[in-house]
Design goal:
The chain has 436 residues and is an alpha/beta fold. The protein is built from twelve helices and 20 strands. Among the domains are: 120-235, FAD/NAD(P)-binding domain (3-Layer(bba) Sandwich), CATH 3.50.50; 314-430, FAD/NAD-linked reductase, C-terminal dimerisation domain (Enolase-like, domain 1, 2-Layer Sandwich), CATH 3.30.390. The strands form six sheets. A five-stranded parallel β-sheet has the order 6-13-7-8-9. A five-stranded antiparallel β-sheet has the order 16-17-20-19-18, with helices on both faces. Helix content is 28%, strand content 22%. Strand 1 (84-88) and strand 2 form a beta hairpin.
Length: 436
C-alpha cells in the first residue's frame, strides 16, 4: 500500500474529506446570509481546528468500517503494506519478497502534477491532499488551476473566511465546458468574493517573509504580482507509476505517467490490467470501482466485459453545482449529429422561485429527428440530484415526450427537467403553474 492508507484517495484525502469541508462551509454560509426578509442572519462562530478534527475522525471511522473491518470476511485476500515494483512481467517485489501472479491489476492511483514554474520547489506549496491536513486556517489562498477540485476548494475556504484567488492559464474556469456554463458559475463564485485571474501566465514564485509571492503576466501582457499566506497546486494529476518498474513489462503510458488501457481494461502487456486514476479513463471513484469489477471478470473469464463510459454522470460540488451526462452541443456538432438545445433557467422553476434561489439553469441537448436526449448540462443548487433520471433516458433511449407525460411533484427541482423538456416545443412562461 505504501504511503496511502487503505481505501485510497477517496476516503482518505479526496471525496470524503473534501465534501465534509464543503458541507461545513455551506452551513457557515447559510448561517451568515438569508434571502428572506423576515430572517436576520448572523455571523457564526467558527472553530477551524475543530472542523478539521471532526473531518479526521470521520475519515478514520469510514476507513475502519468500510475497509479494515471488511478484511476478515475476505479469506482469499492478503494485504501487504509496502511499495511494489515489477521485477519481471508477472513478478512483483514488495519489501524484498517476490510475488508471482498469472494475472495482475494495477490500481496505484494518481498524485498532483507539479508544474514547471520558476521557484515553485523553493516554497512550501500545498496540494488538495495536504491542504486538508492544516489545523490552522489559512489567512489567504492562491490556487493554481481552475478545474473542479480547485473550484470546490476555493468556495469552501472562501466561505470559511479565507481570502481566495484562483490563477488559471486558460481564459475560463472549467475549460472543457461551454462558455454559458463557465460564465454562470464564475459569476456566482465571484459574488462570494473569490478573485479570478484567468488567461494568466505565471513567471516565478518566491517566499517573502511568511507569505508567498507570485509574479504573473495578464492576458493583456501586463506583469503584476500577488501574495498569499498559502499556495495550493491543483493544475492536474500524474499517474503513480514512477518507480513501479513498468519498463520490465512493456506497459505503455502517457507523458503524465497514466497507463493506456483498452475497453477491457487491458494494458499493452498481456495478462496485466489497470483501473482507476492511474489510467486514462475518467478519474472518479465510482468509475474506478466499476473498472475493478470489469477487470477481474476479464482477467479470469472468457466472456469479456467492456467498460462503457458513454453515459457517465458527473458533478462539480460547488454551490451552485455543475452537473452533466452525455454529450454537449459542441460534441454533437463535431460528430455530425442533428441536435437542438434548450436552456431553461431556474428563475422560471416554481421550486427555485419560492426558495428565493434562482441561480443557474438546466440545458438539454436532444436529437430532434427522434426526440432522444443526447446530453445534459446543469448549473443549479443540488443540480447533481437531477442526473439519474436523465442518465436513464439516454441509456435506454427514452424519448423526451415520455418524461413530459410523467407526473412530477409540484415544487420540486426535478419538475424543472420536465419544464425544460417541454420548452423545446412550448413557451412554458405562458403556462399556469401546474399546467402540463
Amino acid at each position: 500500500m505504501g504511503a496511502c492508507h487503505l481505501g485510497g484517495t477517496c476516503v482518505n484525502v479526496g471525496c470524503v474529506p473534501s465534501k465534509f469541508l464543503i458541507r461545513a462551509a455551506e452551513s457557515i454560509h447559510h448561517a451568515s446570509m438569508s434571502n428572506f426578509n423576515g430572517v436576520t442572519a448572523g455571523k457564526p462562530t467558527i472553530n477551524f481546528a475543530q472542523i478539521i478534527k471532526q473531518k479526521t475522525a470521520l475519515v478514520n471511522d469510514m476507513q475502519q468500517y468500510k475497509y479494515m473491518d471488511l478484511l476478515p470476511g475476505l479469506p482469499h485476500l492478503k494485504v501487504i503494506d509496502g511499495k511494489a515494483k515489477f521485477i519481471e512481467k508477472n513478478i512483483v517485489e514488495v519489501n524484498g519478497e517476490l510475488y508471482e501472479g498469472s494475472k495482475i491489476i494495477i490500481a496505484t492511483g494518481a498524485t498532483t502534477l507539479i508544474p514547471e514554474i520558476n521557484g515553485i520547489n523553493d516554497v512550501p506549496y500545498l496540494t488538495s491532499q495536504t491542504l486538508f491536513e492544516l489545523k490552522q486556517q489559512p489567512q489567504s489562498l492562491i490556487i493554481l488551476g481552475a478545474g473542479y477540485i480547485s473550484l470546490e476548494i476555493a468556495q469552501a475556504y472562501q466561505r470559511m473566511g479565507t481570502k481566495v484567488t484562483i490563477i488559471q492559464r486558460s481564459q475560463s474556469i472549467l475549460s472543457k465546458e461551454t462558455k454559458d456554463i463557465t460564465d454562470e458559475l464564475e459569476k456566482h463564485l465571484a459574488d462570494e468574493g473569490i478573485n479570478f485571474l484567468t488567461g494568466t501566465t505565471i513567471n516565478k514564485v518566491w517566499q517573502d517573509g511568511t507569505n508567498i509571492k507570485i509574479s504573473y503576466t495578464t492576458s493583456t501582457g501586463e506583469t503584476e504580482a500577488i501574495e498569499s499566506s498559502h499556495i495550493v497546486i491543483a493544475t492536474g494529476t500524474k499517474g503513480n507509476t514512477s518507480g513501479l518498474g513498468l519498463e520490465k513489462t512493456g506497459i505503455e503510458t502517457t507523458e503524465r505517467g497514466l497507463i493506456k488501457v483498452d475497453e477491457f481494461l487491458k494494458t499493452s502487456a498481456e495478462d496485466i490490467f489497470a483501473i482507476g486514476d492511474v489510467t486514462t479513463n475518467p478519474p472518479f471513484v465510482y468509475t474506478a470501482a466499476y473498472e475493478g469489477g470489469k477487470a477481474v471478470i476479464n482477467a479470469f473469464k472468457p466472456q469479456q466485459k467492456q467498460a462503457n463510459f458513454s453515459v457517465l454522470p458527473w458533478v462539480v460540488f460547488t454551490d451552485p453545482q455543475v452537473a452533466g451526462v452525455g454529450i454537449d452541443e459542441r460534441e454533437a456538432e463535431e460528430k455530425g449529429i442533428s441536435h437542438q438545445v434548450t436552456t431553461f433557467y431556474l428563475k422560471d422553476i416554481p421550486r427555485s422561485i419560492v426558495a428565493l434561489d434562482t441561480r443557474g439553469f438546466i440545458k438539454l441537448i436532444r436529437n430532434p429527428e427522434n426526440d432522444l436526449l443526447l446530453g445534459v448540462r446543469i448549473v443549479a443548487p443540488e443540480g447533481g440530484e437531477l442526473l439519474m433520471q436523465l442518465s436513464l433516458m439516454i441509456k435506454y433511449k427514452i424519448p423526451l415526450k415520455e418524461i413530459i407525460g410523467m407526473f412530477h411533484p409540484y415544487l420540486t427541482l426535478s419538475e424543472g427537467v420536465k419544464l425544460a423538456a417541454m420548452s423545446f416545443t412550448t413557451d412554458v412562461k405562458k403556462m399556469s403553474c401546474c399546467a402540463s
